[in-house]
């Protein structure tokens, strides 16, 4: 907690919901950072850290943790630390006292994770109790029905390394069985997988397919498992998936999610920041051109917003404004520099360092950015920042002679822990192969070998710049968006799709040019025999600024106070949710009486459930995810929820409206959900404190109630007047209470 200058201990700080599942009272940051200290040549500090882990870390804790996070951060950290300690001891440099204690801890943790795989399918539960496992009455877990693809498919490196270091095959066999299930459940016609899968019957719960959150490291681990373990099965599966990704998901420089059963249409117009790892993975595969293109797009987005937003639209506007200091862009920058030796990528790395120092560095570390538009900090520095960001940036600028080890003898896990390639000889590959790969199908020249830049781009030292230059004008200044000329009409009300999406689904791409015009480009399908090939039309477009406070692509909702004495005159601008009831389909909106949730954050069971039943609950943002609050209030019987921002003084006039997002399993949330900034929310809180019954209408637009038509929500000054009027009424009517 770099703003508070103290560590975050599970149970000692307010719960943040699922984010805290990474914490298990096992000194997470210390373990996750062990091999980083060696890479940075901090060998005295490393030895001291190993002693601390050996003396102080205990795993027999009655804590429910994420299987995925505990595997990549803690098991991976212990294995990386053990391998570094063994290396330094063998070199007689340090740690002559070390006797494999970190490996013993890793083995202990491995056996504590194994109960999560006790399902009919072999896919793991998403959470496990470190002391009681999954199915014990004391475990407080084991009721989950599904997990993400990456959560089930990102175990093989750590589990295989543990098996080969301990000669206990159960770990590698277990992780491989989970990968076998994911491969078997892929869409056979196109080799795509979904994002969330039922752990009991293997049915897909979320069928969107991409390379970002929920799937990302599944692909990474197939490729790296081949590199680390030498088993062709993993390479064949990766290559089959990669062909599908490049055919359906990759629209250079974009990577857009598609439906796994109907992949010809993109199902969303935004990308999340986790996909920034993908150019680095493409480098490992040898596909440098699309890696350079996507990385350049990400760099342009980063330059516009100082950091890569947690999500951004296909026209590069902010979609989710947080930046928790994620390292994936730095990771891809490192791999591209290693592959090309182009000093351009050193400049990119320099810009990352400068942004971190200028906008994230605080007295006690580096603070996550809660909103890249305002620069507001969050009291959070995740362990992956030290495990990955520091490591990749240091390696980017260091020479081989500066390192205490040969980095090319190791593979990076998804948490950037170092596993030696020598593990491939510790055990022969598993003979079972469920891949059924059709030889020759989709294979390219580099499907089974690592290419050289000289072979790819003979006698062309400027090839990276040539590829990049085509993508340097992707972003227009500011938050502008395109309005097409009137000759084209789109059925927006029928499809609710953006014009850019419709053009894209027609096979057309808009490329901004330097003279404020736009080139419309289409590429014929590979199977078509059209003689046109490439074609382009150039036309002038009008650049339109979006309304103040409105994020492109998000339609604001209205919260209208309809009970006396307001009679509909108070209308507040609200943000929508991506889950729950779709208010755009409710012709007359949804009405309800307000009640304050207890607890106000609604992160735990609702204590005033009798008052909440059938009412419109008010709950404050923070401490846990919106989906967790919505579930708790829906279970308490609320007819809807209005979330109020916890940032003092925020209002819709000054802040960019956003959509609340779920947690991957929000299909059972059916009540309406809206979000108000703090000043708008205060109007409702003041009204509720004065009047016994306050009724509101949630709708896409205000309702005309007969006195005077209210077309526009209240401005900031009107909000202040409304709040003052309510408080004045309180003093006049109830001076004693006031």
Automatic annotation (TrEMBL):
Gene Ontology CC: endoplasmic reticulum quality control compartment; membrane
Keywords of the record: Calcium, Endoplasmic reticulum, Glycoprotein, Glycosidase, Hydrolase, Metal-binding, Unfolded protein response
Entry cofactors: Ca(2+)
Keyword Metal-binding belongs to the record: yes
SUPFAM superfamilies, sorted: PA domain, Seven-hairpin glycosidases
Keyword set includes Glycoprotein: yes
Signal peptide positions (record): none
Domain PA as annotated: residue spans: 590-683
Active site: 69 (proton donor), 216, 310 (proton donor), 328
EC number: 3.2.1.-
GO molecular function, one term: calcium ion binding
One GO-annotated biological process of the protein: carbohydrate metabolic process
Residues involved in Ca(2+) binding: 414
Enzymatic class: hydrolase
Record's subcellular location: Endoplasmic reticulum
Family: Belongs to the glycosyl hydrolase 47 family.
Entry protein name: alpha-1,2-Mannosidase
Organism of provenance: Chelonoidis abingdonii (Abingdon island giant tortoise)
